[in-house]
Amino acid sequence: MPSPPAAATAMASLYARDKLLVERSFAHFTQESLALIDSQLLQQNQALCTEDVNNLHQQQECHEALAQACIRRIAYRCLDKYARLLSTADTVEDALKFYTLPNELQQRIATKYPIENTPPPTSWYEALNQLKELATTDGILDQGKLWCMILDHPMTSYVHMQCQICGHKVVDQYPLQQTDGEVGLKELQPTGDELELRAGWFRGPRKGVVFEFTCPECQHVSHWYRSGHPKVILNPNKWGRLCGDQEDLRLTLADYLKIPVRLVVPLDWDHVWSEYQSLSSNKSWEVQDGSARNFARRLDEGIGSWTRVWAISSNAEWCQDVTGEYLMYRRVGGRADHRNNHDSNEMSRYKETVRKAQNDSTGQLTQAKTCYGYILARANFTDDVITKELQRAATEYGDKEWWQL
Predict the structure, then answer these.
(1) Which SS3 state, helix, strand or coil, does residue 1 take?
(2) Are 234 and 253 in contact (CB under 8 A)?
(3) How many Cβ atoms from other residues are within 10 Å of residue 352's Cβ?
(4) Is 234 within 8 Å of 252 (Cβ atoms)?
(5) How far, in Å, are 78, 98, 102, 224, 245 from residue 235 at the CA level?
(6) For residue range 64-115, what is the model confidence (pLDDT) as tens digits?
(7) Residue of 253, 236, 230, 249 lying closest to 100 (CA atoms)
(8) CA atoms within 13 A of residue 360's CA, in its CB half-sphere
(9) Contacts of residue 339, Cβ cutoff 8 Å, sequence gap at least 6
(10) Could you give the CA distance from residue 227 to residue 84 in angstroms, rounded to a whole number?
(11) Which strands sit side by side in the sheet containing 285-286, from one edge to the other?
(12) DSSP of 47-60, one letter per residue?
């Protein structure tokens, strides 16, 4: 669904005129930033439009262009991740071998994944080889079984940002109930010695910074930062590994092991997970993590709604709006597990919650307090239109910028 020429040109002109404004707004679209971009884009469109069309028509064209740009930017951010995480096999193996696992962790892994006459793994590399052994029957490696074990393994598990001595945790919550200062946290500028430091969400959107945490329990000062490099993410010594870091690592390991996966991102909610393609005849997409598979039920947590769910991959054919699948039970082609003796109308209720959030111009009904779902809804973009735009973005990635519609 290409945008009208004037609206597409207006988007490019606005980006050229004020790149900082556009990038900042698209990174976290609130009601205020959306109103500003709407006004600026409409002005650009009116200046460029040569046809005699009314203001409402131009406004709708701008809404469609903005929705398309949002899709492309989110897709490009995920595709950037794929491009950045394409580590060589040697880099991944070096990272897997780099750390000696703490004794407690060695014993925990040996207990969970026992192999007769085999000592506990002393490195992640040894742990991975033991998983391969457990997933092999009659000399044949079952990749699906291996991947399920990797997803459930301490190697890729969630780790709170915490004191690196006593383990006192800093909860990743938003909106904040305590300021950074109240929990003992502050931002430091990078020194340049950090390995692939990156921006990311931690108690709200953050630039690429180093966090200094003074523990209220033991007063130890810990330093931590977000990174996409496997050597950083695999640090087993109380180094925080948030959901985005988990998926960075899983994508890296999937590429290393040649297992087909795709990234899954919800709109207007801070989370990310992955789906893997089963090796069965229908090659269906599976979700190992129960909380992700049943993501609809998180709408009952009382922290706000999500508005859409997208699957994104460097393979354009795998890019898809999967909102509907996450609002359906597995027995009818969806993702969610059916629960006996439970609210028979829960999916209808969840669909209505999502619909209301999609049509909320303030973004206040969403967990992230952002307006991406609303931007798509007012442009009348259907699931099929969004899927086509995601696939087009994956095809054009590397040849065109996200704002070049």
Answers:
(1) coil
(2) no
(3) 12
(4) no
(5) 23, 9, 11, 11, 12
(6) 999 999 999 999 999 998 887 767 899 999 999 999 999 999 999 999 999 9
(7) 236
(8) 23
(9) none
(10) 11
(11) 285-286, 273-277, 261-267, 308-312, 320-321
(12) HH--S---HHHHHH
